[in-house]
Amino acid sequence: MAERKENSTNSVNRKCIVESNDLSYAIDMVGGRWKLLILVNLEKKKLRFNEIRKAMSSITERMLTLQLRELEADGLISRTVYAEVPPRVEYELTEISTELIPIWKKLCAWGARHRKARA
């Protein structure tokens, strides 16, 4: 599991944000350009790193690695390493993140309606 430096500016800011209210906490957990998209890609099945990368062609390998580490540290995905040669690693949603599925489906529908309205 990824560790965060407790005294870094980002860590202190994050602590203040997530302790301020529930909405801030939720947004921090799934916020940013990539986290929800990663979770959406894992909705139907476990995926390996390269499968996620292929589904999200505009994300860099480094950013995907960082986002996967954060999602794992926050308990939204689990990472399973299989003792094989070569090693196989799969990512999947945790029970807590499956609760987000109806929320991101509503966000997707909202986005579709408003993107059409702006076109």
TrEMBL record:
| Matches recorded under Pfam families | HxlR
Position of the signal peptide: none
> Can you tell which superkingdom this protein's organism belongs to?
Bacteria
Q: Does the keyword Cytoplasm apply?
A: no
GO MF annotation, one: DNA binding
| Record InterPro entries | HTH_HxlR, WH-like_DNA-bd_sf, WH_DNA-bd_sf
Keyword set for this entry? Answer: DNA-binding, Transcription, Transcription regulation
Q: Does the keyword Zinc-finger apply?
A: no
Looking at the record, the residues that make up the HTH hxlR-type domain are 16-119
Q: What is this protein called?
A: DNA-binding transcriptional regulator, HxlR family
- Organism field: Pedobacter steynii
